Amino acid sequence: MEADTILEGFLNSINMHGLKYNKLIGDGDSSVTKRLNEVLPYGNDFRVKKIECKNHLLRNYTTKLSAIAKQTDYPISIRKHILTNIVRFRSDITKATKHYINSDIPFQTKIAELRKDISNSPYHRLGQHNNCAVYFCSGTKSGEINLIPLAEQSKMMTSINNVVYRLLTHADSLIENVDNNPCEQLNSIINKHVGGKRINYTQKNNYKTRVEAAILSYNSKNYLRTLHKKMTTASPGKTAKRYMSNIERIRKNTVMRRRKLFCEGGKRKKPMIKYSGPDADYGLAEPLDGLISDNDLKKKKKNFLKQLNEVNREDLEYVTREQSLSNDWHNERKKRLTASNFGEICKMRKNTSCRKKVYSLLYRPNTTCKQTTYGIQMEPLARAHFETLYNVHVQICGLFCDKEFSYLAATPDGLIGENSILEIKCPFAAKDSLNAVEAVEMKMLQYCSIENGELTLKKDHKYYYQIIGQLRITNRKFCYFVIYTPNWTNTQKIEYDDVFWRTKMVDKLKLFYLECLLPEIVDPLYGKRFLTSDIRDPDHIKHQINKK
To answer: What is the pTM of this model?
Structure first.
């Protein structure tokens, strides 16, 4: 219900206010953002950016830190220190955020510097001040104990960094310094007026009238007196006047706190109802009406491809170098087919519907798990280890587009010199293995095999397709494929195979993008009824399915 209500506001914002809303302040629940990305109220080239509520971010941070501190596997001295100073862990984040909000530096620089200080904040609070900024602290205090060595030895620091990573990814939201307190305050007033769903107010105008009364109360802070005088043409009695006088006094005492529209504090938000979408077999099984003609679809596809061809490749790579931390990176990837998906697409059977894959590429929300989080956190360590091991410099890069096919893109983990790229894998399953042979024999690395005593990437695995695609798109010859674990590291030098690209990849990728993905990009059908069955299957797939 909440997602539908907000979506309706976006759909009518131009008619009602002459505005397009490009940002949405929300909490950790992705259902509203997911719905907006499915429907695309302003068209496929205008996406709404979600700004996380700062209160929810910080509350989630301290809650998860407290949960870690209650795990008896970790040293009790650190656990007690965290629980005793849990509020200070939060205040470290707010202090750093306020500093950069007030700093006179570019917005992107603020975000980058804030991420550094957020990453360092648990080290500061646990007694290690090597990387603390000057404004943040003055160094080690007298009698302070450095708990970091013990935390790293017990692997507690890894768990703490996992929690900190969520704040890192939302540093831009912290800089925005906003929350959704007004919405929650209004919802709480509505709940009071409707009796917390305990009474049936579904009769004509009952619920609507009570919501209007709640809005009147929220905006005027004076609804009792207003309604009483309107209905009785007389002022309220002595008791009501005393009540309103007390309320007014309390509000005046808190005027400084309420001076800002978005203030600190606020009530906990009640769990939202999750929307699972309509049932394809219950009332919505009829074909979708109102489809555009094939000629109009071809024109839209042609215009979109023209726009992609006009994009400056060098500028795009530069502005997306923050990769998953960049909003531009996410938006530009949605318009293209990226190398991480090449393997699955090239290995699809001819009679396999493309609907689920198109849905996954365009609409499925970004989710994180411990394996993904572990890989993201270990990647900088793996890159630094590779640089030390081979005495080379790895340059961080953004999104590359193919010169010939502008709708094919890739983001390697780094560039080496003028002719090589780096691809890093940090397998969570093999993190405790002693060596590569053990990892393969125990089936922790199913994408590798041992050949002539060396760890080798299988050529039929999707990672190999990804690497060949990256080499083609970046126009480079070699890829250093690094598998990194705390106990061992393996590096394989893979050379670009043009025959493999031409015979097993390029035609399938072109066909999938132009016939499966592009139609849904330029003329989205899924958002009309939220059914994957509405997504188009091209004629060649339908023909193969019918033959089967």
So the answer is: 0.71
